[in-house]
């Protein structure tokens, strides 16, 4: 099937994006990420030693299929975000940036104002900007207008594993968006990921649910399959929801026939 | 992985059971059923001409991987169900029977009283009884006590595609059951099937959602993958749901570090 | 408003039925029950000393507005239920009986088979039978057919306070029933009770949610108001759910006008 | 009960705010608004003829209990909003303003960027600003920081009647807010309004659900009661949700006692 996702100038065969946080070891991380077949993997800039080419995380992510997506996690406003992105471009030699600005430490929800400002500026500076945001359809349109190459609305608070609590608004975002929609945060189970794809999301980002599973490699594989399943179902069109029952078999009575 | 499902004396590698209703043609049905890799396929006894070994449906289901599961759809009480089961055993040479007794034509919901009576009798007559029932945990225990080899609680009304509307009670049934629990009816999307497996169901039965899709073969494949994903996730254990956010990356501030 | 609920030969102005369990004292119970304005109050037969006319609970329930509804909680099968009902009729001088048969101590879910048998027998013996059951539409029809004067499907497991987890099936029951439908068990908040009434339930039974509140008298009042609100909304017809937004104000632009 | 809601310098006894759109006539509107006992009623500035003291809507809203809350519905950016607010202050002699900036005509969702800018400016200009916004907790904090006297997050798209689709985020907003939280938009049934109050919202705004009911006066009354019920329950504390059943009556078996 020729069902390629394109963001900026890159093509992706996998619609599962992953992250590098919370794994018990770099070795487990690497195995899980390979099992996921993910081609875009986010790494917190603050966690890598950009001056050290033998940095443990970077070494483990060195693989022909993997594209690095540095993220700005930890910054508190647009200025810090821009500074972090520039540092990242220089050190990691990529102009892709996952823009995360969430000042509050309890719920880690993104700041719409700072994110839009930073996105606008970063686009002008030549970045491919992937902004992590609340599932706010108007904000998504504005980000699109300033040149963000995709939008990454959240399903639920990061790490909560609650699934698509924003479903009502994700549907509107998907309906309106002219750039890819990637559901980020909150996806805690393969069924959530499949559901996002069935709704028409272009990709999902999953980190915690894989990293903290008892078996991260198996869980990565499970997400991979679920996302393929959800995408396949989206393309094949789901059956409509009915309010009355409908027999699978014709309703003529059995013994009177 | 050696994750076999056993019902009575049969072992199943696939946890997707399917049906034969509502397909646009027997050829499409066959392709979709093969794509599903299902090993147990239900067919309404009233739809086959049991005296004709060239019956169109039966011919299309003739495949080494496929076990036939005749169902009693159309019967209105336990007597008709027993009669139908006996007829089926003779004609199709299987003692497996999917017991469906749903007198009401609007919602097609199963009758708990007639189903229990029929199950008890059929077990005594040597049948492997797979009863389709409401997601009633007490009824499930009683069916288990009279010897039903599995229970098949519904997720939502047949053909409604609404998903696991009975989730609260499916969880209790799964918690209590000593026989396999197969979620039957209502599953309308691969995400629903994955969710059933994540809850710990042993298998699911899907028919309408595959048959009425615009692309039944792709949809069958999507269900296959989703069920594998859900089962894998169940075995690997899902991450717990959290009420506060949890960063994937450590929470030290970025630029102060 | 002349919106009377009739069960058997009795008329009720209040659609809130209550219970007597779990209150911190009989005095608090009495105050809360009066605040609820409930006219039908269930009491576990096993908790009253039927030989003692000064039994504490009975004394506290002695009020012109209150009708007692003895329940069979604690019985395990239809024979015990019939025996209990007869004992109750003799001692408490009422032929009304709330039929509860739930053998399993963990989830306290009702047994459909024993309940139907007991209901049929009790109706013949002249009882007004109010059966507590799973939200099983077929069972409800069968109870109606044997002469039960109402049906009492559960919203969620007793004492769970989870609300209308069986909503999908309650709607079918309400659609089909020719006897009053009283939602019993699981209602944990006034909003749940209002919702049940909005769906068209004839009454609700609430016990735990009132009894274990920090302020049972205020909570009883809250349920009373919510049920009136829900009933009023049902009669006034709710606005339909829309999939696009609709402005409350006309959509002509403001400053161009 | 001394449970007063204070916004800026005004005290409210009713926690139901209403609107004036979509009623079939001004007479019906007036009756319904009086039945609601609402003390704060929003009116689209674009719908009133501010130069005509005999304007039909304004005449019907002239009542000692009613405070007018002009809204900026129809404006597309912060400049238009400020202009509209100033016009409104002059004509209607109130410095209260409901700030609504929703450029998109299909879903009418509010613009976070323009709303924050307008709120900041309007506060400086001496307005009591009540901003209608997405249920975005970070945006709510920022509005609070610039001096908005309350926040008005949406439950679902305006006029959709879908209820509290943003519940997950409303809970966070309520947890964090130091100004009153008023749930605006999407509330389609009294049970939704009760639920908002049970979660701890300070008030709700309801318009469509009352105006388009078959009986707006009865529906207004139903909302009034439901909101009182929900608030009362919030103050009395709801019983916790349990995962196992809990009998209302002690679990000693009946006949063995």
UniProtKB/TrEMBL annotation, chains A, B, C, D:
It is found in: Cytoplasm. Residues 6-250 form the Thiazole synthase ThiG domain. Pfam families: ThiG. Pathway: Cofactor biosynthesis; thiamine diphosphate biosynthesis. Keywords: Cytoplasm, Schiff base, Thiamine biosynthesis, Transferase. The active site is at residue 98. 1-deoxy-D-xylulose 5-phosphate binds at residues 159, 185-186, 207-208. Its main location: cytoplasm. Its EC number is 2.8.1.10. The keyword Transferase applies. InterPro entries: Aldolase_TIM (IPR013785), Thiazole_synthase_ThiG (IPR033983), ThiG (IPR008867). GO terms for biological process: thiamine diphosphate biosynthetic process. SUPFAM superfamilies: ThiG-like. It catalyses: [ThiS sulfur-carrier protein]-C-terminal-Gly-aminoethanethioate + 2-iminoacetate + 1-deoxy-D-xylulose 5-phosphate = [ThiS sulfur-carrier protein]-C-terminal Gly-Gly + 2-[(2R,5Z)-2-carboxy-4-methylthiazol-5(2H)-ylidene]ethyl phosphate + 2 H2O + H(+). Catalyzes the rearrangement of 1-deoxy-D-xylulose 5-phosphate (DXP) to produce the thiazole phosphate moiety of thiamine. Sulfur is provided by the thiocarboxylate moiety of the carrier protein ThiS. In vitro, sulfur can be provided by H(2)S. Belongs to the ThiG family. Homotetramer. Forms heterodimers with either ThiH or ThiS. This is Thiazole synthase.
